Amino acid sequence: MSLTLYFHPLSGFCQKVLVALYENETPFTPHLVNLGDPDERAAFLKLWPLGKFPLLRDDRLGKLVPETSLIVEHLALHYPGKLALLPQDPVAALEVRRLDRLFDLYVAIPMQKVVLDRLRPEESRDALGVAEAKATLASAYDLLEAEIGGRQWAMGEEFSMADCAAAPALFYGERALSFRDSHPLLWAYFERLRTRPSYARALAEAEPFFQFFPRREGDAGLSR
User: Fold this and answer.
1) Which residues contact 93 (CB under 8 A, 6 or more apart)?
2) Are 206 and 8 in contact (CB under 8 A)?
3) Using 50, 70 and 90 to split pLDDT, how confident is the model at 150?
């Protein structure tokens, strides 16, 4: 196979790319990276010095493609499938990119701030930063509740790159700041995402690693 994905199943950003691959049944070689292993970490840093995954290696084109949205667009351009995750119409494509960025920057990123703070020693925790991140999440939930409303998917009837981003962002976002009871339309949309076969598969593959997700005090942990 010409495509190799360097990733970890627990990572929401990696799940975003996995959804895109699974939606179009795109053949690829999965390469799980354990950054906690010194040898694996050194090998990955040699390949990609920034040390961030997912990373797509395309041997046919001789390219390394970083960053989730770039990977999904690379797949759409060079390995198109039955489902166009990015519309050909440039105006519609721009809207997909806008929502994709919204989920990544205003749900996934602040979620990480909240969750990763749980790993810090008590004396090093950033209460102000966590409060600001939760405020960003709350504003994003309000915006998404109003914009997506009763749509089937983020853009309407067609599943897109924005939905690939939304599924893991909302799954983990719920663990940082719940929207289950406060945003019924957003919750219903998330329920559709969670049962979409491509994301259900990504979640099933992540499940053995759920034990490593930083939990809140009294939190039962992750579940599908």
Assistant:
1) 86, 87
2) no
3) confident
